[in-house]
Amino acid sequence: MALDAFPPGLSPEDQIEPLACGRDAADVWDHAADGVPDEHERSCPHCAAAIADARGLDGIVHRMADEVPPPPPSLVDTVMEAVLNTVTAELRPQDLLALYSPAGPARLSRPAAARVLRHVVDRMDGMRARSCRIEQDGLALSVAITVTARFGVDLASVTARVRQMVVAAGKQALGTPVARVDITVVDLWEER
Amino acid sequence: MHAIRPTDDVAPRPAPQVRVPEPVVVPPERELDEVTLVVRAQEGDVRAFELLARRHQGVLFRVAVRVVGDPADAEDALQEALLDAWRRIAGFQGDSAFSTWMYRIVTNRCLDLLRRRRPVVPVDEIGEDRLVASGLAAPGSRGPEHAAEVDAGMAALRVALARLPDEQRVCWVLRELEGLGYTEIAQITGATGTAVRGRIHRARKELAEVMRSWR
Amino acid sequence: MSVLHVGDRVVARVAARAARAVPGVVALRPDLTQALLGIAGTVFGQERGPLSADGASAVVEGGHAEVSLTVVARLGHNCRDLAAAVQRAVTAEVAAYTGLDVLVRVTIADVLIEGPRSGGP
Asked: Is C38 left (phi over 0), alpha (psi -120 to 50) or beta?
């Protein structure tokens, strides 16, 4: 990196003037900050001045780093209000699944349906849902779900059970038949 | 009204004990890994995004305060950044860490905010009084008796930090206060590694110069 | 002979009220039309301000009304049945109150899984 004479975006202000002894001043500073100056740096007067600067600043910078201003408690809530407003405002036809209703047009948000199906999988011992993509043909759903499993669970039986749970949730929670469930186990995890 | 009942015609025999659960309070921290949360958020799961935001808000707020120099401005910048993140998360490729991606969005928002603010309050006029008044020079996590002796130096460091060029301050904060490496800082700022090193070094020298009188 | 004329807003208010009373409906959210008009402001599970409290929009033409509702459902209530229940309740209530013939469009925008907001760490 240091060999790039004038890489894109590098202005003269970004360049580091070497110390009078020829050493790269930033290297000397990094060594001092890490507490590992080399032999030259320990004995060279030019390096010594740089090391003194680094050490002089070190204490107060650490104190500043230790100060952790806590975020305002309502910060995320405020963001989520805005997020929910954009979600509702930006629901597009392709984000919606059709629900059977004799009483008029009825739709269900696709992300909401995915959340329900993931939740059902999350509640299974040793399983977590990751991606859940839902397609609809007529009323019937095709679900492609990726899961992660705890080490040691029997993948064959557990995926069979995931399939049953997703089909059941489609029928009972969503009210729409699930015609197909593709399950991919994408990762394993250990109980912490 | 239409509560869920278990049905027995769902799956091949033997009928599994399948029941759709009633609403429950799921602990929000229910140890979901970050990749899972990111994928869910990318697929429009608002709750997964909320968990990500809650997990990262402490670090991101700290960075924002240090870069913009004012808690209220930092809050604005971080709120805007999180909304940006929600709108753009589908485009997050996973070629950098999620935290790197978030740092980038937040520091960009901070720089935007500073650029907007600049004409109103020139840097040179950001005096110690304003920083103290804004709460930035308030004692940190230490007790007040200790704070009394270090605060004058700390306030001087804050003022010196506020007077650095914005890009230098961002790089310095990420390196010296967040402890990130040059490569990650380059990813966050979009500058070259060489430029990042140069900015950090310049910032260090300037701060050392100002603080020499406090040693 | 006199004819009763009912405004869009009246129908929307009656519809929102009827929908909110259906078991399993947690909240209404302003629908697309309202959001585009810039009067969105409903917060999940909360009602703020007189406009966003409606969460329903309606258009009346002659003896006919079209109502659009965006609702948040609670897990444990079948979404299909919930949507139909909202449609029936709104149709009946609007008809009883105004005499209008109604078409009700329902969109379930979210399904509440967590129960009441549990707050974060």
From this structure: left
Residue A81 has pLDDT above 70, yes or no: yes
Indicate the burial class of A83 (C-beta count within 10 angstroms; 0-12, 13-18, 19 or more). buried
Q: In degrees to the nearest 10, what's the CA dihedral of A87, A141, C84, A83?
A: -10
A50 is in which domain, residue-wise?
12-66
Query: pLDDT band at A91, cuts 50/70/90?
Result: confident
- A58 and A96 in a single domain? The answer is no
Query: What CATH class is the domain B30-120?
Result: mainly alpha
- Backbone torsion region of residue C119, taken as left when φ is above 0, otherwise alpha when ψ lies between -120 and 50, otherwise beta: left
Neighbours of B26 (CB within 10 A): 17
Amino acid letter at C77? H
- CB-nearest to C80 from A84, A109, A174 is A174
- Cβ of A59: how many Cβ atoms within 10 Å? 13
Neighbours of C81 (CB within 10 A): 18
Q: Give chain A's domain count.
A: 2
Q: 3-state class of C70 per DSSP?
A: strand
| pLDDT tens, position by position, A10-38 | 566 667 888 888 888 888 888 888 888 88
Chain C residues inside the 8 Å CB shell of A112: 108-111
pLDDT in tens, C3-54: 678 888 899 999 999 999 999 999 888 754 444 443 333 333 333 333 333 6
Handedness of CA C35, C37, C43, C45 (dihedral sign): negative
Contact list, C24 vs chain B (CB under 8 Å): 1-2
Global pTM reads: 0.80
Work out the minimum CA distance from C112 to partner chain B, whole angstroms.
8
For strands A178-189 and A127-137, give the pairing.
Answer: unpaired
Domain co-membership, A123 together with A183: yes
Higher-pLDDT residue of A4, A137: A137
The CATH number assigned to the domain with range B128-134+146-215 reads 1.10.10.10
- Hunting for tokens 């027995």 — which residue is that? B8
List, in order of start, the domains of chain C with CATH numbers: 14-112 (3.30.70.1350)
Do A58 and A136 belong together in one domain?
no
Distance, CA of B195 to CA of B185 (rounded, Å):
10
Interatomic CA distance for residues C63 and A94, integer angstroms: 32
Nearest residue to C108 via CA among A95, B36, A61: A95
Residue B131: alpha-carbon gap to chain centroid: 21
The token pair at C23 is 């078991």
Mutate to test the interface with C, among A76, A77, A84 (most CBs of C within 10 A): A84
Residue B75 to residue A75, Cβ atoms within 8 A? yes
